[in-house]
Design a protein that fits this description.
This protein is mainly beta. Helices cover 11% and strands 47% of the residues. The chain has 2 domains: 229 residues, Single-stranded right-handed beta-helix, Pectin lyase-like (Pectate Lyase C-like, 3 Solenoid); 229 residues, no CATH class. It is elongated, with a radius of gyration of 24 Å.
Length: 493
């Protein structure tokens, strides 16, 4: 109810804001901008934004055409409106981007502003592939100093949009293309709506789609994301902050990493989220991953209605101790309901421009998993109305992990490792693996394997208060093996 009431107010506010903004339109070409795809318009666009900001606010309208630009700042009470076939195109010159606010530069920066937005049917194209390769050339010539890991620049990579510490933000209708870093970033913002946008962010590596970092009050809806890294990603970089009061609905995502991700950076944590009607496809890693690995808390998360097809993994929940710095992480009160997933035997993102890495191979297909640590346990997780279809075919001669007490004891804890479902290489179950967890409820869960697997379907190790209600397991040619193993575990009576 708290989130619902918050967004009723939020929507009323934006209806007022839109009426106010639409009554004050300014044509960017009246300020001298050129839409010829050649002229650099950075200073003109900035001057137009400054003028509107100083004269009561309004919309800066871009008609059809291509407007070349470097970094400019969006200011309070200004909305950029991109008409159909209008394109803000990033300059190919890395020196046209400056004043790094977050981790990278951006085409559009807004820092500590209020009542700002970007709307319309046009496109913001950061030209990330060209920019990144031009930057690499400058680094090789020692014009720019950069670590250049794997012949890729570490710094000065360019996002499309970065909002930092802003309040009352709207992004609606636009298309975002090809950054050389994260695409759309919001850090420590309040009251933000992202509605009906399209992201195609596959031109370079580490190209997340949407990153919401330590924000309070965010609504993401009706959007399409195709990213070479995490598609829809929530982060907490500040141990004194928390990312909270967020709704996501009616989105479609594709990723060469994870589809919906909480983390990896999770210093403060995540609280009060509701995700509904999410579709995930052709995704290399997990459809859903929730992590508390840097000392933060995760609680009150509802994920209801996920269709995941051709993915590397369905669900991964993990507590770790990567950057906890003495804090105690927690992951509890999570509901994941009404999920249908198809796990692929082959690489799900094969053929995309930037595929996910292969360092987590070889291994048999990994199960969905809930993995805590002995002293930091995952608690109060509900999985209800879940169907996961696996290829099966786990081969003990390829890699074997026994579901015996001795075999389970041999699985490393790996508290400091980068958290990923494949970090353990081989796991002893083909459907679900649960370790160091309490109060875990499985209700109406169906696990199917298209071919026989040497492993059981479900393994519970060091778990307490486990409820298994209406579990259906269908493994082709499974014989009479025990499909559910409880080691040092107690079921709920």
């Amino acid at each position: 109810m708290m989130i619902k009431a918050r967004f009723v107010f939020f929507l009323i506010f934006f209806q007022f804001f839109y009426v106010f903004s639409y009554s004050r339109d300014y044509d960017v070409m009246r300020f001298g901008a050129k839409n010829d795809g050649i002229t650099l318009n950075t200073n003109i666009i900035q001057a137009a934004i400054d003028y509107i900001n100083e004269n009561g606010g309004g919309r800066l309208v871009f008609d059809s055409g291509v407007y070349i630009t470097g970094t400019f700042y969006l200011k309070s009470d200004v909305i950029l409106h991109l008409q159909k076939n209008a394109e803000l195109r990033g300059s190919g010159n890395p020196f046209h981007y400056w004043d790094k606010y977050f981790e990278w530069t951006a085409v559009i920066l807004a820092v500590k502003q209020q009542n700002v937005g970007i709307t319309g049917e046009g496109t913001i194209n950061a030209m990330g592939y060209d920019n990144a390769n031009n930057l690499v050339e400058l680094i090789h010539k020692r014009v720019v100093n950069d670590a250049l890991t794997y012949d890729r620049p570490v710094a000065r990579r360019t996002s499309n949009i970065v909002f930092g510490e802003c309040e009352n933000v709207i992004v609606r209708g636009i298309t975002l293309r090809d950054p050389s870093g994260w695409t759309l970033v919001a850090n420590q913002c309040r009251n933000m709506m992202i509605d009906s946008i399209r992201i195609n962010s596959t031109a370079y590596w580490n190209n997340d789609g949407i990153d919401i970092v330590d924000c309070d009050g965010v609504d993401i809806r009706n959007s399409l994301i195709n990213a070479s890294d995490d598609a829809l990603c929530f982060k907490s970089h500040d141990a004194t902050k928390i990312c909270q009061n967020v709704t996501v609905e009616n989105c479609v995502v594709r990723s060469s990493a994870s589809g919906l991700k909480f983390g990896t950076v999770s210093r403060g944590g995540f609280k009060n989220f509701k995700v509904t009607n999410l579709k995930v496809h052709d995704t290399y890693r997990s459809a859903i991953t929730i992590q508390a690995v840097d000392g933060g808390l995760v609680e009150n998360i509802i994920i209801d209605g996920v269709e995941a097809k051709n993915v590397g993994n369905a669900i991964f929940l993990r507590i770790g101790d990567r950057w906890s710095s003495g804090k105690t992480p927690s992951l509890e009160k999570v509901q994941i309901k009404n999920v249908y997933a198809e796990v692929s035997l082959s690489k799900p993102d094969s053929g995309y421009r930037y595929e996910g890495p292969v360092e987590d191979l070889p291994r048999n297909i990994s199960p969905a998993s809930i993995i805590g640590l002995p002293d930091w346990r995952i608690k109060d997780i509900v999985l209800e109305n879940i169907e996961i279809n696996y290829p099966g075919g786990g081969n003990p001669h390829y890699a074997k992990r026994q579901a015996t007490a001795e075999g389970l004891e041999a699985i490393p804890e790996m508290p400091y490792a980068y958290p990923e479902f494949s970090q353990f290489k081989e796991l002893p179950a083909w459907g679900f693996y649960v370790r160091h967890a309490d109060g875990i409820t499985f209700e109406n869960v169906s696990l199917k394997a298209r071919s026989a697997d040497y492993r059981p379907a479900m393994v519970f190790d060091d778990t307490r208060d486990v409820k298994l209600g209406n579990i259906k397991i269908n493994e082709v040619n499974s014989g009479r093996k025990n499909e559910i193993i409880l080691n040092n575990s107690v079921k709920r009576k």
